[in-house]
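Lab meeting prep.
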Amino acid sequence: MALSATAQTGRTMRLLAPVVIGQSSGFVMDHPPSIAGNSFGFAMCSPTFPGAIPVSVPGVVEGVLRLTPLAYSILGIGVLDSSGVSAAFTFSVPNDPLLVGASMDVQGADVNGFGLMTLTDNDLELVVGPVAPAPPASLNMVSIDPGTFQMGSVAVGGDAVPVHAVTITQSFWMGKYEVTQGEYQAVMGSNPSTFQGAAYPNFTNRPVDRVSWASSVAYCDALTSQEAAAGRLPLGYEYRLPTEAEWEYCCRAGTTTEWNVGSSLICGQANFFFCIGGQTGVVGSYAANAWGLHDMHGNLVEWCLDSWDQTANYLPGSVADPFVAAGPKRMARGGCWTFGSDDCRSSIRIGFGPNSTYDYVGFRVVCAPVLP
């Protein structure tokens, strides 16, 4: 374990995802926005350096060095901007069991226009872990590979523009179905749904409705604890709501049309606009999209993890793993049994208060790397 030192510079390293064989990981440097324009770089040494060396040569270098001074390599370089977060350095770990347990230190540094190099206040001590095992089959999760897609829609306009490239950098698992009433009851001990009881055959396999964002998050936390206690939770992963970007990536499943079934949506393809008499349907009653996910259009609007201030908060330009943490509303996606087809499109966004409950809102879960 490298020795700690009191933070002096405001520059810190942060891991974006667990370092696991056969998967991708990455890291960034958080920094004061005031040093925008400085050049930065990431350096690595392996094996890890067990100590820390204070370095102070006025006008040349300042900080604490946590790399082996005689054995290191440069991983990546760039220029800092005013966002306060450096560009991410991402890397893929080869699927080689011999790498399990390998360790390394990674440290960042930046250089201003006068040539002064400042070291980050911490390093990242990375240990390669075994490949994450798939969630148990009983949870009905689908493996999703990283990739890039065009998020948003010119046809929808409003808060669905600008259309922009989004890269999902980490593999994760997405629930094949919306969380059912039976699943929710088993984990939380209650069922808040409207569409339950004798009037709704097979109601335990209909999606849970009238569940708030806060209760959906509580379900995910309880599921994480349950699976961790049973030894079934992949290393460095958690169960949570999908981010808005993860949701649209999975809904589109490689398509660029307004719906993942093409240029229109009709009854027989999804449960929308009272297609089955104004109620939810049993999950999986309609064909899955190209990635094996059911009911991404219709049935219930699905909570996402992101907050929302109900403004068009898409930024122009390419982004990786976007997530909006602050805002009074919570994002929901996908349309439902009472919405028209236009409001079930892949890009449609809607916001509700985190404690709101409606008979047309539910959720599905992902098993994904723990968010920073």
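Slide two material, second protein:
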Amino acid sequence: MDVLNVIPGSFKLVEYMKCDFQVLGPDSSTAHYLVLVMDNDRVLDIIDLGEASEIDALVDRYRKHMQGVSSAGRMPTVVDQHKYKRIGEELYSRIWQPVEGYVAGVDLVLLAPDGALNMVSFAGLMDRDGKYLTEKTPIHYLSSGRDLIRLKNQAEAVAGLFALGDPDYGASVVARRPESAITADTISQEAYHAARNVRSGCAELKDITVSSLPGTRQEIEQVVAIWKESTGEAAVFYFGSDASEERFKAEAWGNRVIHLATHGYFLEGVCQPEVLQARRLDSDVGYVGENPLLLSGLFLAGANLHGQDADSLGAEDGILTAEEVMAMNLDGTELVVLSACETGLGEVKAGEGVYGLRRAFQMAGARTVISALWPVSDKTTADMMSRLYDRKGESLPETIRRIQLKSINELRSQNKADHPFSWGAFIALGDWR
């Protein structure tokens, strides 16, 4: 197998697969999760984890818990910690315990989730002794094992940081249009015109008005200062009305790192029925679902105007969808940091990872994407991001793990709950180097 040949010798690949099993006959099947454990020599084992419906129900409880903690707007209480312990232990025992004997002592586990498991921060899963997975095993995420084949080729060397934060979500079209123009070098013109300002038909998106994120200005300032000191490379950064979709599309390409600190969105499946109802009228073909790349995106300058005056002036609407990202040319970009809420999500497709922002950035050419699985406060995010760029010669997984372990130890030393809500939201997907 080509994948086996490119697994580094000191690593192991753990790949989950959601598969249909025939149960009573050719017309009757049920979905199971399988997990394959591989090294660069062979497939060590293929393990049946059981019915997918049971595991997906656990993941649903896990996500609702994290969203509940987030909506409370504070750090978890002792009760929250006890509740999470039950959920984290049960998930650990179902999806990780069967493979942990194969990966003990390895330098890095390359982890490729599937289905609903894409919504889980594995680092925060907990064993029966109360230890988090990140305390025992270094991990890094892939969309699938096939990523190893794509990543074996080194990217073209580029330099520089492009960053934006604290957008003015009420900025007018005139205020946010830059002098620089989008060119054929930055984006496929055909793809650009096909994707520009195409939004989900979900009413929920039309009703969203987002609040300012002043903490992200400090985050960007810290990131830029650390970047310049540690790399000596140039940095371009924007705030307010300049933190716009126009700026991003015109200037983000050709930079080694892209850092976007703003609100993100992910439209759950509840939006599908209303779109279906609106399009059901006289179609002979039937409705097969909305483009999943429209279900996630980022809010940039002017987003609260929801496209007002944009089309008539040939401007952007301030809502950057995953579909628009995928139309860009980001070849050479080593890292995209999506410092926003729920940017790691998207519609789940079994066997294909998550069709969301993180997948879109990879398809555009970015080698690694860091994104969040649940909402985190802008202050907590700023602290985490400032540490992220202080790499100290480490690989990306080593840095993220160091940040997580430091956060856990700080919470414990203060006799606070070490709940993974504050330190486990961000995951890195793609190249680990």
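Talking points for slide two:
Confidence is low (pLDDT under 50) at residues 180-194, 273-288.
Residues 78-103 form the longest helix (26 residues).
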